[in-house]
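task queued by scheduler; priority normal; single chain, no ligands, no partner chains; default sampling; output format set to structure tokens
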Amino acid sequence: MTFEDAVFTFFAAVLLGSAAMVVTIRNPVKSALFLVLAFVSAACLWMLLKAEFLAIVLVLVYVGAVMVLFLFVVMMIDVNLAVLRQGFADYLPVGGLVAVLMVAEIALAVGPKQFAAGRLAHAAAHVAHPHYSNTRALGILLYTTYVYPFEIAAVILLVAIIAAIALTMRRRPDTKYQDPARQVEVRAQDRMRIVKMRTEPKA
């Protein structure tokens, strides 16, 4: 076994172990942290396959942004684990069947023929040039061959952002709004009145 095979086996074992802990551990915060470990291990596997750009994007986007958001949400909300466990046995057969089908599909998609330590040398043979840059090659392909699909996707995302802002900022008839200009013009004597009342004598 070469050094690359040993490193691949180590990170693959860590990835499988952390993925199993994500779905089996009861604490949601620890589950999210194990998911972070799974993402980092997957990024290391991408590095071994000479896909540096995908590895960096996986760490920056998922670990640095998405998982941080997940952790904040999980820690801020009060998750009632007793309610979540109700009816678990009723859905166990269906969930087990779905899990078996997903494992079979993953095994077919990323099995030893498509994704294994033995293919590292084959992947490295295409990038043996000392000045090869994975990010540069991806950028050239993205802005030449796939420039129109890339621009269409950018326009769709821009429209989605504008639509989300418009839906959030639209005026609803049953919603109360405040006018800052009228609030600034308010004087104390307009809102408060001092009334002098005669005191009652002690009994």
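post-processing summary
- The chain is about 70% helix and 0% strand.
- The mean pLDDT is 80.
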